Amino acid sequence: MRKFEDTYQHKGLRKQLVSLLKEKGITDETILEAINTIPRHFFLDSAFDKIAYEDRAFPIGEGQTISQPYTVAYQTQLLNVKKNDKVLEIGTGSVYQASVLAEIGAWVYTIERQKKLYDAHKQFIFRNKYPNIKFFYGDGYEGLPSFAPFDKIIITAAAPFIPPKLITQLKIGGVMVIPVNEGEIQRMLRITKLPNDTLQEESFDAFSFVPMLTGKNG
Ligand code: SAH
User: Model confidence at 218, in pLDDT bands (50, 70, 90)?
Assistant: First the structure.
């Protein structure tokens, strides 16, 4: 059994990471506080213990990655998450992004298409700390119609297009943050559903995510 320890060294590295995120333009104190609180090294294999607080993506198995902390903070900031928001996340992966949302006080519904990664949540170390995360095995393109509508939707994989079913599951006034392909890279888009049911689209920086694939695996 792995022993999980959050040492002074880990805490110090986390503070440095938070300073770096501030320098890079993250201003939302609630997000910075969540990142300062959550031991990212617990979400990674112990081999990454010493480098877990570098602002980098790392492999988490099944060819997938935990997102870079800057990307997590950036997407969360664009999403403008408030306590008690009902948030749908596509791409559970390591559960790190979901934990940041849960730490802020959102009700998180997260979908993963890789069976092995989905199954790993049963050993998720913060299951008791974050009862506000609900895990689903499925295809994110379908969303979760039985739990819709959502205040916010966050896609943490590179989408070839904006999935129409997810737009349907967004509340009026709701916000979706999604990286959409432009060749090899993706453009971060923020979609807001306006009162007359039309969509407002805003375009932000370029990022590089693993692809959002169709169907389930496993
Ligand atoms: N939010 C994650 C990032 C994981 S990377 C974290 O914080 O670690 C993206 C994840 O999206 C991968 O685990 C991948 O398997 C998953 N994914 C890709 N396409 C998907 C789809 N259609 N539905 C659900 N999950 C998907």
Answer: confident
**What pLDDT, in 10s, does the model give residues 85-117?**
999 999 999 999 999 999 999 999 999 999 999
The fold adopted by the segment(s) 57-207 is Rossmann fold (3.40.50)
- The DSSP secondary structure of 11-53, one letter per residue, reads HHHHHHHHHHHHHTT---HHHHHHHHHS-GGGGS-GGGTTTTT
DSSP 211: B
Taking the centre of ligand 1 as the mean of its atom positions, its distance from the CA of residue 29, in whole angstroms, is 26
Counting from 1 in the atom list of ligand 1, the atom nearest the Cα of 139 is 23
Asked whether the beta carbons of 145 and 169 are under 8 A apart, the reply is yes
Its pTM stands at 0.97
Q: Which residues pair with 217 in a beta bridge?
A: 114
Is pLDDT at 30 greater than 90 in this prediction? yes
- Is residue 99 part of the annotated active site? The answer reads no
Q: How many CB atoms lie within 10 A of CB 36?
A: 16
C-beta separation of 152 from 79 below 8 A: yes
